[in-house]
Amino acid sequence: MADSKKKGDIKLADQLKRILQRLDAIEEQIQRNQTDDDESNGTVAKQCCCLPTVPERVLEAGIDPGRESLIRSIEKKWVNGTELKYYFFTEGDWGGSSSQQKVVKDAFRTWKNVGIGLSFKQVNQPDLADIRIGFKQGDGSWSYLGRDIWNRPVNERTMNFGWPLRGQDGQDTALHEIGHTLGFNHEQQNPFAGIQWDEEAVYQYFAGPPNYWPRNQTYHNILKTLDPNTVDGSDWDPNSIMQYAFGAGLILFPEEFRNGLNPEPGLSEIDKQRVRLFYPELEDDEQELKPFESRRLTLGPAEQTNFVIRPASTRRYSIQTFGISDTVMVLFEDTDGTLEHLAADDDSGWSRNARISVRLVRGRNYVLRLRLYSSRASGDSAVMIW
């Protein structure tokens, strides 16, 4: 009797699984038909990512321009070695089908396979996640930029996909939004691109279907040139995954793009170089940081050093940098090889030092990752725990 009941439960579970798969397929077909209708009705513009606006980071008055440039170019980036945990909403307006989730999972894998020091892990609760991903249709595709996601409440999305992710366009959309989460801006706003726009044509293009953007949204995502201090290099990459595609008549110069700009699919070679520059594969070079032993920081801008901490007693500890440098330091707890974010501080742009005060437990291991923005006097900075 028990065996027959067990077989019945398994059969029912299989039936439910097949029903859910069919519902996913029906949903995909409905979305595909809607998009095909748009195209047959003369839609020209492609659906494009729309970055959320956030307040600019406030720096100390009178800061040296060179120092500000270094801070602005790195401020959104993660310390290398961070494991970014992501969560998919599955119910309500924010829920996405399993096929849509798979496209995003594959995109995380593509970024990781470039050979970077960051890693990605799916979790099953939003409060455990750094990246919280929704699929609300009609709400556009977007992501907060880099470490800005840590400033969002745990019940909010940090990324959304507002149209079906299918084919190469779907893959590129997922790669693009993850690129924002890694700290990379829109490439068409690169101040070194030298793009001259037919601005009114651009406003009209994005005011129509399928984007329906107001003028301020178009300006924020396309026409506004980024501060040169925030750009990760002087080269414009028209094939970057962070570059929009544009129809004819929007770009006046360079002349080769007057008839349209269509980036090659996938990550470009420059995309791969840039992400490896900020997040190179980690080497096993962690030093031990022991109480009351000052460790000198001999780093260049954007360089990083890593320490392991093995507390001899359970108590509250202070970890602090000393000297005249701009740094971000993040403390992780090592839980069976998984690094859980514990605390962080960022002193860049202010006349103070980064400091973390936290309770550490004897017998547990911790990892401190420290990235330098700028050092105003070579060799004059250090870190200590006590």
Q: Can you walk me through this structure?
A:
Helix content is 28%, strand content 22%. It contains 7 helices and 16 strands. The protein has helices at 2-40, 65-74, 98-113, 167-181, 199-207, 215-223, 269-278, and strands spanning 83-88, 119-122, 131-134, 142-143, 159-160, 196-197, 251-253, 287-288, 295-296, 304-309, 315-323, 325-335, 338-346, 355-360, 365-375, 381-385. The strands form 4 sheets. It has a 5-stranded mixed β-sheet with strand order 2-1-3-5-4, with helices on one face. It is globular and about 65 Å long.
SS-derived structural category = alpha/beta
Task: State the end-to-end CA separation.
Answer: 65 Å
What is the string of helix and strand elements? HHEHEEEEHEHHEHEEEEEEEEE
Q: How many DSSP-defined strands?
A: 16
Which CATH class of the largest domain applies here?
A: Alpha Beta
In CATH, what is the homologous superfamily of the largest domain? Collagenase (Catalytic Domain)
CATH architecture of the largest domain: 3-Layer(aba) Sandwich
Strands side by side in the biggest sheet = 2-1-3-5-4
* Cα gyration radius (Å): 24 Å
The parts where pLDDT drops under 50 for at least 5 residues are 25-43
Q: What coarse outline follows from CA principal-axis ratios?
A: globular
Number of helices: 7
Helix content: 25-40%
